[in-house]
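Example 3.2
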Amino acid sequence: MTKDLPEALTGGCLCGGVRYRINGKCRDIINCHCENCRRTHGHIAAYTSVDQSALALIRQQTLQWYHDESPNTYRGFCNRCGASLFWDARDGRNKIAVSAGSLDNSHELKTIGHVYVSEAAKYYEIDDGLPSFETSNSGALESD
């Protein structure tokens, strides 16, 4: 589900080298349990998603992009403090995922599901009753 929020969301990394603003609709949060996200975040990755045009980089001096092993997948992070900020599939959908933990205030966004639970680590359980998908949600959690 996407939401028009009452005001723009802002966020950034721990050290302040990267700051951004989101103007527009945000998808509610999806938790990704894939191995790549767990290694990048140190645990599961919680992401909202927005149109590329809705994301404005205010400060990007320390923003760096890492090309993931997946085709056309890039992860944006701060090269000073190491904060994971963005996941960009660059697959023509014109969407970019934004790390929920990097938001200054998540307003009314809420967690709506889990993806790649087949790759979840054994040290935690997924028991919140939200929709869970073995791999991708194939758009099931993306609707307006």
